[in-house]
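Researcher: Structure prediction, please.
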Amino acid sequence: MQIKAMVIHEKNGPYQLEDVELDEPREGEVLIRNVASGICHTDEFGRSQGVPIALPLVLGHEGAGIVEKVGPGVTDLKPGDHVGVTYAFDGTCPACRNREPYYCVNFNQINFGGVIGTNRTTRLHQNGKPVSMFFGQSSFATYSVASAASVSKVDDDVDLALVAPLGCGVQTGAGAMINVAKVGSEDQVAVYGCGAVGMSAIMGAAVAGCKTIIAVGGNPRSLELARELGATHTINRKEVEDVPAEVQRITGTGADVALDTSGNGRMMTNAIRGLKYHGTFLPVAAAGTIEHFDVGNDIMMPMRTMKGTCEGESDPKTFVPQMVRWYKEGRFPVDRILSFYDFKDIQQALDDSANGKIIKAVLRISQQ
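Model: Predicted structure follows.
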């Protein structure tokens, strides 16, 4: 079928709304009419060829929409279902069989390889030539084909533009607190960076009832919003000379868990040094380097843990609907961090994000 999609033809090239051919869903796949898609920094990582993906390419990996058709073997979804779409995984590797799809051994190949599944094929074509996919969905388009395993059914009465960002950035932050760190009422946590992932971590910590939630950032407006979303304390890194000392002062012992969303070396060092004895550091940014890092004094002697994690260790079939339930209960106000744009205004959304005018952009996709 012919669809409209935002196509990238060159490294760092512009998004161009063009006609693209989309194949029918195959075994275990579904066809989705996209209603919305979040914009994530990972999309820009793909556009800049942070990893080499064959061009042309259709990005987008936080899709939400309505199921139009299901392929053979799909039994848990049907046409008309409202759904969110998340990361892709093979479903057969040891991690997937152990119900840890977020650590799928083929994660990078599937999500960044321009294909869907492990058979290295795309469902997108233009003028008879293949067009690369992204995260097995390419949601910057009017329609997508995705693996049913990556599709989560949600309540019909929730705006799908709120569901879309749950598929990556939001579940990464909230899941890091709830699924990875497993924080609770006695824990004190510090979140470094008040973008979409950081704010989601704050909301996740608030849902978990953490005793102390410290937001560390440099934008006063964002820090004010962080308090409204659940932070008990804020630290403006531009005004406080010794951030780890301030975290130690607030908590009395240091943070049990520190989450960095910035990828900034100084921020990550501060996050580690603000931990308590035997505390845990979770870096979730896709890039970053810590220079002059003292492993002995910062990690080994204080018996701290640094743990890499992916997608908040979230099982998409359960965690996305769970976040929707929290939202409906008024416990997870994700709408407070979202700004909405028409599909054609994708560049404006990117510019506003880059300039710090908004926290998280979501595209509303109409059938062009």
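Model: The longest strand covers residues 29-38.
Researcher: Thanks, that helps.
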